[in-house]
Design brief:
alpha+beta, seven-stranded antiparallel β-sheet, 30% helix, Alginate_lyase_dom
Length: 707
């Protein structure tokens, strides 16, 4: 590394940039203020900047040997050693996991993870007296506060526990306290009921999926990979990166894979602006590449555009200098959830290039306290943009003016509620009645996942989200090369012993263009859609009553224009001759929001009153709008009609396009595994359609009759 900073290349460039930043800090007076602010406040942010500054300055000392950098870190640590022993619990403490320097112990652990490394960097430049003062005043008290004085958090299988165990375990290595390392690995009593190893066992599925979702997987990744690297450096015989079939390396790859156009999929309590360039994943990718030299990780590193001043960072820089990167595999995948991989799954269906169509089907477990009540929901992306969207979290991270930077009240009243997601809502109540403890006991059942050329599909169900309603949902991402078209087919069947109000919302990004049915709009006064469970936050903009002859062709079609200049039509099959009361409701978010915390997003909701009902829909990207060149192409849907057929375990969606071309998506829902050679035959109006395997797109069909 010391040699590399003298040679041209990405590592030298990163060093020069960091050196300039650190030198600016050296010219500023050290400030270690008395803690008084919550997240986003001045003292909170100052202590965050301090630990980062100590870490960066310590690295520069390691690379240059110039003692002025060690002196700066030493002086700041001495101020912390004088401050910390006298601190009470933080005055703005957020919850039972309170800190002293920060409003929650989580931030205290992050401080120690960085600070213990900074201390280790400058250790050779300190006298024994200085070491004793720093350790007894700051390092040891923080480590004890996070462990012995906070047993509930330290032993918890949760990202807070991960940060705490990483901080204490790394401190144990630096201070030569092997008992601290063992406690960090196996809990305070060494009983293996908590600790870092238990977290590796329980928080990740065998596929490297973290149960709180990609956003918190990204956050938790930092202590996992940093502590694991320390374990590898100090005790390679533990073979930590081989544990659970390489679960840490799997988690790094999975985190990168659960993104689209550089942004992480916003599942559960997610800030939607977080992406693969977050520092936690930068560290993870560098460490992984340092271990396995996977050239596809260099593709992610290049997009991250951040070189770490570490040994692994040097390997990444050299790989990029030599242009060794190969495209990262953004493939269709099923990521099992649960420690045994048996608690549902997250399915990602992709078509073509990384910014082509992608469908995210969330059939996972709850995700603990950060989970949302959104079983069998979905999102859709195209041409780099979010098309069918998930709200993510209601939070302005570290903006103190918005509830101190923490989660807003609307995170509970809106973002977590089922109506905020693209899934079934029964009688205007959320899944599991919005109770986390109840939700954590249940998960969907995955029936199948199948990937073929030009066709990917998955099916899952759940019967515990409501007392007497079960529902099953099957998604297919279908590429029709003959038409240069990609569509999404969505089949959701709800069953119950009694009649219910079924709402199926679609939260879309863009401007409404057209519908094929009449809407009665609220022109001068708005009312809320409901009074609770998130409905109180929706303004009802327009209503359409759907019947046999309206909309036309038994399809309710909604078309909108996204910022990417493409049109999207969502066509839903309307039940005819059933007597079911069916409506399409158009809403906008923002009601009962006195502090205007919520984004003003739009949705349409297909509402049906029935005991049993099957929703069949097709989402179709089409056309182009180019305002610069002033032309519009293909602004209307190409789909003329849909029919749905069910024959025991076989089902089919029959699609007729406006030019007369017809296709049949045939699916075998049988529980037993099917091979490509298994042939099924579905009979539709006297015509037999044989197909192989789990599913097949048949067509163009040689038939003159659609119905």
């Amino acid at each position: 590394m010391q040699k590399a900073i003298t040679e041209q290349g990405a590592f030298q460039d990163a060093f020069k940039a960091k050196l300039n930043q650190v030198d600016i800090g050296l010219n500023q007076s050290i400030e270690v203020p008395l803690p008084q602010d919550g997240g986003g406040g001045y003292t909170h942010e100052k202590h965050k900047r301090n630990y980062q500054q100590m870490y960066d300055t310590g690295i520069i000392y390691q690379l240059t040997g110039d003692k002025k950098y060690a002196e700066y870190v030493k002086n700041m640590l001495l101020q912390y050693a004088a401050l910390y022993p006298e601190l009470p619990v933080h005055p703005k403490r957020k919850n039972s996991n309170a800190g002293k320097l920060f409003w929650q112990g989580l931030n205290e652990a992050v401080w120690l993870v960085h600070t213990i490394q900074a201390y280790d960097f400058i250790y050779p430049a300190l006298t024994q007296t200085e070491r004793n003062t720093i350790e007894s005043g700051a390092i040891i008290p923080v480590a004890l506060f996070l462990s012995e004085q906070s047993p509930h958090t330290f032993n918890k299988v949760h990202n807070h526990g991960t940060w705490a165990t990483a901080a204490v375990g790394m401190t144990g290595y630096v201070l030569n306290k092997p008992l601290w390392v063992e406690r960090a690995l196996y809990d305070l009593d060494l009983a293996k009921k908590g600790g870092f190893m238990r977290q590796l066992d329980e928080l990740f599925s065998p596929d490297g999926y973290y149960n709180e979702g990609p956003y918190y997987q990204r956050y938790a990744l930092m202590p996992f990979v940093t502590f694991a690297k320390a374990i590898e450096q100090n005790e390679p015989q533990r073979k930590i990166f081989e544990y659970r079939d390489g679960i840490i390396l799997k988690a790094i790859n999975t985190t990168a894979a659960l993104s689209y156009n550089k942004l992480l999929f916003p599942l559960n309590d997610a800030i939607k602006s977080k992406g693969i360039d977050t520092i936690e994943l930068v560290n993870g990718v560098a460490i992984a590449y340092g271990l396995n030299a996977d050239p596809t990780l260099l593709d992610i590193a290049k997009q991250q555009n951040t070189i770490l001043l570490t040994g692994d960072g040097l390997k990444v820089a050299q790989g990029l200098d030599q242009q060794l990167q190969q495209p990262f595999a953004f493939n269709s995948e099923l990521y099992r959830d649960g420690k045994q991989g048996a608690e549902g799954a997250l399915v990602v269906m992709r078509n073509g290039k990384p910014t082509d169509q992608a469908l995210v089907y969330k059939a996972t477990a709850q995700g603990l306290g950060h989970g949302h009540f959104d079983k069998l929901t979905w999102q859709f992306y195209d041409q780099g943009n979010e098309i069918v969207s998930d709200y993510g979290a209601a939070r302005f991270l570290n903006i103190e003016a918005k509830s101190g930077g923490g989660y807003l009240p609307e995170n509970t009243s809106w973002a977590k509620q089922t109506i905020a997601h693209n899934t079934l809502v029964v009688d205007e109540t959320s899944h599991f009645n919005g109770k986390v403890k109840q939700a954590n006991k249940h998960h969907p059942t995955i029936h199948f996942y199948d990937q073929q050329q030009n066709l990917t599909l998955a099916s899952a169900s759940i019967d515990s989200a409501y007392d007497d309603v079960a529902f099953k949902r099957t998604f297919a991402l279908v590429n029709i090369p003959q038409r240069e078209a990609v569509i999404v087919v969505d089949i959701l069947s709800a069953t119950s012993s009694q009649s219910h109000q079924y709402d199926l919302p679609v939260h879309y990004q863009g401007q409404l263009i057209d519908t094929n049915f009449d809407r009665e709009a609220s022109l001068t006064q708005l009312s809320t859609l409901g009074s609770d469970n998130g409905y109180q936050h929706l303004w009802l903009l327009a209503t359409a009553n759907l019947s046999q002859d309206q909309p036309r062709d038994s399809l309710a079609r909604v078309t909108w224009l996204n910022d990417n200049g493409r049109f999207y039509s969502h066509s839903t099959l309307v039940s005819t001759n059933t007597g079911k009361h069916q409506q399409m409701l158009f809403t906008q978010l923002g009601a009962n929001d006195p502090n205007m915390n919520l984004r003003q997003q739009t949705a349409f909701i297909y509402r049906v009153e029935a005991s049993d009902h099957t929703f069949v829909s097709v989402l179709e990207p089409h056309g182009e709008y180019n305002p610069a060149k002033e032309f519009t192409i293909g602004a209307t849907s190409n789909i003329a009609a849909l029919t749905h057929h069910q024959q025991a375990e076989l089902s089919a969606v029959h699609i007729r396009f406006k030019d007369g071309e017809q296709y049949l998506l045939a699916i075998n829902h049988h529980e037993q595994a099917l091979t490509e050679q298994n042939q099924s035959v579905i009979n539709i109006n006297g015509v037999q359609y044989p197909f192989n395997g789990r599913a097949q797109l048949l067509g163009p069909l040689n038939t003159g009759s659609f119905n």
